[in-house]
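Here is one chain, start to finish.
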Amino acid sequence: MTQSTSTQQQPENTTDSKNRPITIDAKLIPHDAKAVVFDCDGTLVDSMPAHFIAWSHVASRYNFSFPEDLFYEWGGITARQIIKDLAEQQNLGELPVDEIITEKGAFLAKYEEDHALEAVAEVVAHLHYLREHRPDVKLAVCSGGERKTVMRALNILKLDTAWFGAIVTSEDYPKGKPEPDAYLVTAQKLGVEPKYCVGVEDTNTGLKSIEAAGYMKGIDVRDLRKSTQKKE
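Its structure:
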């Protein structure tokens, strides 16, 4: 058993779709972890720039402002909450939330049809590593996005939904990130106590949600991308 664990923790090298080298950190997931839960946008899928373009479209149409720095700061918050907060900050009264969400979603879907959506290669490489070398660890997706948007992204990237014991989206929990609800619901659906779960996120909002849910570890994708890109 000891020998197997030691072998498992040896670094492995792989490449992304553009043949750029990536180092797999076999020690990234604690040996006693029972589940790894991935955010979607910006974590599994490099879709945040597309989302910003879609937000810019509806902001122009409905006369509100959503600067790029604030967009990334609020990454992980549900669209419904974003619209509510922007309206309050900018004294806009009540905005047609459902209408804006529908139009943003339609714009995003068309944009993603016309532009190749790519995986966050460093994260997906670790996902494949877990499937091959840690089959005992359950996998899940926990997103602040709508289900149809998340499922479309997974389908485009050929990430089989059967790999995940749960796919949790904004329709599945009452309070969005940074509240713990999303990650607590995901752990419950997996049948794993939060203290044995690891969360993977690309925003401070998401990482706060992981911590609030009592997960054993939160992995910051921004750090992972820096550390796993091998220097040539």
